[in-house]
Amino acid sequence: MKEDIVVKTFTRVATTAVALLLGGTFAASAGWLDGLFGGNAEDAFAQCRQGAVAGDIGGPFELVNAQGETVTDTDVITEPTLLYFGYTFCPDVCPFDVARNAEAIDILEQRGMSATPVFVSIDPERDTPEVVGDFADTFHDKMIGLTGSKEQVDVASKAYRTYYRAQEAEDEYYLVDHSTFTYLVLPEAGFVDYFRREVTPEQMADRVGCFVDAAS
To answer: Which superkingdom, per the lineage (predicted)?
Structure first.
């Protein structure tokens, strides 16, 4: 079952469509958040960052989990959390990013630290609670899959200043251009940092560990 989901994820879109995504997604992601981040002279986590960030990213959201239950950010973010916005029909970008995040969670566990990976769909039309649940479970048994109404997803996306836009298509196999950052959120501190796609699982685990230690 899980293997079938992975195969479907990688094969739903033709090669030409993948090329479109790579052009649109990375153009949207490259440097898109750079202008949003500024310095903070009293940043308690400064030693953990590779760049300065502002404290106005993140915030309350209300989404739907795999069981069809409405949950809030406080229900979901109960420990250090790696938050990613994507969609299950994504042909290659999302699966690789989500797998990287899952591997970082395992590395942290080996180091004695517990963290949660969260996947938020920005494609609620296709990503039902069951679909996001199966997708999340494919990558990690701790991963939480979230979806919701378009309005709910918009609120969460705006809170984290993510970008997404569905491409026009004549069938259900449309692509969605979207930003590809992973956000580190702590229960008490909220959003503290973000990770680009090129960050490795080990590098991610190192930085998450730094934030956890600094917060304790």
So the answer is: Bacteria
